[in-house]
Amino acid sequence: MDPFMQAAIDQALKSLSEGGIPIGSVLVRDGQLIAEGHNQRVQKLNPILHGEMDCLLKAGRIGSYRDTVIYSTLMPCYMCAGTIVQFNIPKVIVGESRTFAGAREFMESHGVEVIDLDLPECIQMMENFIEAKPELWNEDIGEL
């Protein structure tokens, strides 16, 4: 397993252990981990703290993002995808998109390379969560 995707999965599990939604993300530059984050909508009562947003918040001001890669356990939503496009992050590597299709086409239409690893562990983690807490999942994706 790619160590950066494993770090994103570890972040997702951290969120789950805190009572949150199991989505994790890491930002990488030149093979070095810059920041990691996880969905904290529940924990911090903040509707925009998705995994990617928390990761970018923790990265802080790093200047250009043009030479970075963001990893996420789940395909980014339109909010997170918009931030990825706005910051000119050229590459997104995701654990899966079966449980949530996200905004792949949007990112690709703006020149972002999207790689979907379709990892069974990411799929199972989200399926288990969605089954256990459908109301929280529907809130997260705006389907309430």
Q: Looking across the biggest beta sheet, what order are the strands in?
A: 2-1-3-4-5
Query: Uncertain spans, ≥5 residues at pLDDT below 50?
Result: none
Largest sheet: 5 strands, mixed
Structural class: alpha/beta
Measured on Cα atoms, how large is the radius of gyration?
Answer: 14 Å
Percent in helix = 40-55%
How many helices in DSSP terms? 6
Q: Can you give the mean pLDDT?
A: 96
User: How many distinct beta strands?
Assistant: 5
Please describe what this structure looks like.
The structure is a single chain. The protein has six helices and five strands. It is of the alpha/beta class. Strand 4 (91-94), helix 4 (104-109) and strand 5 form a beta-alpha-beta unit. The N and C termini lie far apart (35 Å). The mean pLDDT is 96.
Task: Give the tags.
single chain, 144 residues, alpha/beta, 5-stranded mixed beta sheet
Offer a quick outline of the entry.
By secondary structure, the chain is of the alpha/beta class.
Helices, strands, pairings?
Blueprint: H1 3-17, E1 24-29, E2 32-38, H2 51-59, E3 68-72, H3 78-86, E4 91-94, H4 104-109, E5 113-116, H5 120-132, H6 134-140
Parallel strand pairs: 3-4, 4-5
Antiparallel strand pairs: 1-2, 1-3
Helix pairs in contact: 5-6
